[in-house]
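dude i think i finally got it to work??
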Amino acid sequence: MNRIRKALEEEKVTLCDEALSHALEQREKTLRDRESEIIVARDSGRFEGRAEAKIEMARKMLAANMPLEKIQLFTGLSQGEIASL
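look at this
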C-alpha cells in the first residue's frame, strides 16, 4: 500500500511538472509571436515610408519635367505608377 501511495505521489509530481513545462512553453511561444508581430509591424512601416518617399520624389521630378525613363530609373516605379501621379 505504501508503494502505491508513493507511486501516485510521484505521478502527481510528474503531472504537475509536465503541466508547468507545457504552460512555460506556451508562454514562450506567445512572447515569440508578439515579438514577431512587432518586428513585422516595424518593418512594414519602413516599407510604407520608403514607398511614400519614392512617390514624392517622382512627383517632384515630374514637376521638373524630367524624362519618364529617368524617373523610372531613380525611383524604381513603373510607368503606370508614375502616370497615376
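The longest helix spans residues 2-63.
im so relieved honestly
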